[in-house]
Amino acid sequence: MVENGMIQQENDRLEEVLKELKEATKLTKADKASKLMGQLDLLVDTQEGIDFVYNKIAEITEAGVFEGSVWNNTDKLVPALVNGTYKSGHPGSTIEVLSELRILAIVQGDLTDEHMGPKEASDFLEEVLVANLEFVFNEPLEETRLMMSDHELKKVHSLFNYISERIHLDGIKSKLVEELTLICEQRPVVTEKQRKIIALIKEKMDLNPDSPVDAELLGFQNSIYCPTTGSKDKSLKEYKEYLTGLDEQELRREAGEAGNAMLKYGLVSPYHGKLLLYLVKKGYDKAAYISLGVSAVGEAKWFQYQEYISKLILETVRPYNCQCIYGLSNMLENGIISRSAVRSGLSNIRTITLHPKVENRILKSNIERDPEEKITALQYLVGALIRILGQPLGVGQGNNPTCQSARGISMWSQYAPGKLINMVMTAATHNDLTFRFEGQEITASLVGTGLVQKLDYNLDSVSVVLVGMLDKIYNEMMLRASGRLEDPHKWVNPALYGQWIQIGFASAYDYKYNAIVDFNGFVKIFYATSHPEYNGNHQVMYPNPVGIFVTTSTGKMLGFHAVSLLRVDQDPEGEMRAYFLNPNNEGRQDWGQGIRPSVYGNGELHGESSLPVHQFAARMYAFHYNVLEAENRVNDVPEEAVEEVKQLARESWGQSYNWIETNKKW
Question: What is the pTM (predicted TM-score) of this model?
Answer without folding.
Answer: 0.85
